Amino acid sequence: KKTVRDIDVQGKRVIARCDFNVPMQDGKITDDTRITAALPTIEYLRDHGAKVILMSHMGRPKGEPKMEFSMKPVADRLSEYLKQDVVFVSSPAVVDDAVRRAAAELEDGQIMLLENVRFRKEETENDPGFALELASLAEIFVQEAFGTAHRAHASTAGIADYLPAVSGFLIEKEVKFLGSAVENPMRPFVAIMGGAKVADKIGVIRSLLSKVDTLIVGGGMAYTFLKAKGLEIGTSLLDEKGVELAGDLMREAEEKHVRFLLPADVRVAAAFDNDAASEVVPVDAIPQDRMGMDIGPETVKLFSEAVREAATVVWNGPMGVFEMPNFAVGTRKIAEALAESDAVTIIGGGDSAAAVKQFGLGDRMTHISTGGGASLEYLEGKTLPGIAVIPELRVPFIGGNW
Ligand code: 3PG
């Protein structure tokens, strides 16, 4: 794909779509990974003399200018990191005369951030008029929003109808790691899937079954698979509609000679509560009135062994209710197994990325994706609309037209 390296940005107005949809609590950013991940591209544009216009969505304000979803805290954080004032014009319309003026007045190396693009309902409708409003602010479009690349919205896809489009370094990095993991993995290739709903992961599990040597299912989803094997799961999370699918997937794994690992033992509790009394039981002895909250020590051993033998590991979804300290052990142990392994370790975004960071093991992974839904769709082999709009780099051949 064409990247910012392939174009001359000196003196040009460049509009870059980032994914600054960061978790917030009481008006404060609680994890700014998505901001720091975009800095190399922003700094590159700035240092090469571009007038930089950044845009992103935050949350799902559904076309209403709700101030709790304002990009202002992001503008402040960017100013701190970039050590320069990032211009922020608070406009509920995202683009208006004041914003156009501010964009026109930018000097080389200056940076501005637009208000939340989802303050306009036309954003998620991929409305050509809104895409053109955004495009009219600049001369070049840079796609840097990997986390939102699975959405065909005005700022992620439509805008490329009006401006030459290139990708930023984050897109390049995500595609490199996620792409090589699924297309050309070093073997043994082990995928670890967790999280609550089978339905959310069905596509990616199915697609990975054609690629991996071992597929591990843990977390809330595992109980649906255990149920499909005919085991009693007490009051554990059950995705009823997913039982049949789970059975199909296990059969498919067998046909494809993929080793399919499920928990052997689990930590169960009487209530969905960190302080609930809990015990470890084998999966074929889950009491009727108990729910599975985490994987047990035997399972940790089993899964960690598979990780130790792997050359590539892709992990998406926690192994238990890791938000509750008493049920975070399994997820932490698996994160530690990845951290200690020599394999290429790739963490699909969302909860597993949050877990790895919470345990302070972020630096020990090969790559932590900034995409949740986007990384799943990418691993599934789907075409992401936000990436599809970036043209391939065409190399001229001597004497020919191109
Ligand atoms: C994400 O956090 O997954 C992305 O920012 C996309 O957000 P969305 O699911 O609201 O489109």
UniProtKB/TrEMBL annotation:
GO function term, MF aspect, one: phosphoglycerate kinase activity
The keyword DNA-binding appears for this protein: no
Example GO biological process: glycolytic process
GO cellular component terms attached to this protein's record: cytosol
Residues reported in the UniProt entry to bind substrate: 19-21, 34, 57-60, 118, 151, 401-402
Isomerase found in the keyword field: yes
Predominant cellular place of this UniProt entry's protein: cytoplasm
Protein EC: 5.3.1.1, 2.7.2.3
Highest taxon, organism lineage: Bacteria
Catalytic activity, reaction form: (2R)-3-phosphoglycerate + ATP = (2R)-3-phospho-glyceroyl phosphate + ADP; D-glyceraldehyde 3-phosphate = dihydroxyacetone phosphate
Residue positions binding ATP: 201, 292, 323, 349-352
Pathway: Carbohydrate degradation; glycolysis; pyruvate from D-glyceraldehyde 3-phosphate: step 2/5; Carbohydrate degradation; glycolysis; D-glyceraldehyde 3-phosphate from glycerone phosphate: step 1/1; Carbohydrate biosynthesis; gluconeogenesis
Compartments where found: Cytoplasm
Keywords (A to Z) from UniProt: ATP-binding, Cytoplasm, Gluconeogenesis, Glycolysis, Isomerase, Kinase, Nucleotide-binding, Transferase
Subunit structure, as described in the record: Monomer.
Free-text function comment from the UniProt entry: Involved in the gluconeogenesis. Catalyzes stereospecifically the conversion of dihydroxyacetone phosphate (DHAP) to D-glyceraldehyde-3-phosphate (G3P).
Family listed: Belongs to the phosphoglycerate kinase family. Belongs to the triosephosphate isomerase family.
Name of the protein in its database record: Multifunctional fusion protein
